[in-house]
Amino acid sequence: MTTRSVNPDLLARTSIASTIPSSELHRVFRDADDHERATGAPVTKLHVGEPYFTPPPEVGRALAHAVERGLTGYTAVEGLPELREALAAKLAAENGVDTDPSRLFVTPGSCQGLAALMQAVAEPGAEILLPELHWPIHLQQAILAGLRPVFYPLDRNYRPDPDTVLAAATPGTRLLLLNSPANPTGAVLDIATQRALLDLARGRGWQIISDEAYEHFVFEGEHVSIASLERDVPVPERIVHSVHTFSKSLAMTGYRLGYLSTADERTAKALRIVQEANLIAMSTPVQYAGLEALRLNHVVRDNHHMVLTNRNTALPAVRDAGLLPELPAGGWYAVLDVAPTGLTAEEFAADLLAVKNVAVVPGTGFALTPRLDARGRVTSAEPAPWSRHLIRIAMCVEPHVLRHGVKELLDFAHERGGAA
Ligand SMILES: Cc1ncc(COP(=O)(O)O)c(C=O)c1O
Q1: Does the beta carbon of 255 sit less than 6 angstroms from any atom of ligand 1?
Q2: The domain 4-54+298-415: what is its CATH number?
Q3: Rounded CA Rg of the chain
Q4: Residue 388 needs a FRET pair 20 to 30 A away by CA distance; which of 44, 134, 301, 336 works?
Q5: From ligand 1's centre to the CA of 164, what distance in Å?
Q6: Domain boundaries, the chain
């Protein structure tokens, strides 16, 4: 299990950023590459959340066309007006979210949108509630924004219960982060849970950040944008900020194109300052590519279908072997519990790579619980003990890669006496 602690003398002179643990994913990437170089054997990469489908060619043509037409100057800090109009229409039609282009921002990937939003809403020292099993970047972003992370428990299917969220909160809580479908768990929040969480947040004076990166990959139930549940609330009283991306739905990971809708004008004003300071503006040709991408709903549906087929083909065997409680209801990943093998997640991942040339990510990297000093610097970060046997695999990879990787993983688990 990884434990990271910082020398107190050094800490007195260090920035917040320099104390934040790097994402475990980067280490796994390095390990997989080193292993490939050292052995010459190709690694089956189940650690990477990079889809096997590619961006639609129309999108690339729209980008090239913008460049050819000389549309390469700065745009407004919030993004191209026509793209923001189109995004407001998409949010209204598809997500049921009532927004206005004045509260919409185009961002270089939703990652930057999330980080900027946290900076825009953070009160110094305020607490943010994160799921105990979370995307490690959310944690890094929160600490960088000067927030103090507090974790809410998840049930055995990785869903939050509003009562336990409330129990985790403190008087310093100001923000609640929701991620549905979730990375890494694939959990999808149903409408009743989201309504209860919204009521809770409203009653307590919290704001909600809703990360909907995987909105088009819901396989059971339906995607509910929590902002749609407050569409009848007057704008100044709304509390939900929604963050979206083109990266997943259209495989546009390298285009770096996301967008977010702030709940109210006050947050939009603060966010404008954050983006002025960080961006000046988004890439202009990429925004024209985004305008084209919004017309390609049929591709989004195909991509959904490809991940669903992968899930339904490869993962039942993992569930039947007793390593997965249920198929993920959404997203691109599954969290496996390898406790029956007797190995820790780190041992399992390292041995699986060494013996079967298959790379997976230890779940401990998604469950770090950092301690912060009074100035918000991380003094230590240990994985929660219950994450000791969890690993994450990606199900967005080529079907034959997924099938092969899962077969090797199950063989390995059997050899270690740990799969039914
Ligand atoms: C939960 C979640 N949110 C946001 C992102 C950011 O994606 P992008 O910056 O490419 O939009 C990712 C990427 O893996 C993610 O898993």
Answers
A1: no
A2: 3.90.1150.10
A3: 21
A4: 44
A5: 26
A6: 4-54+298-415, 58-295
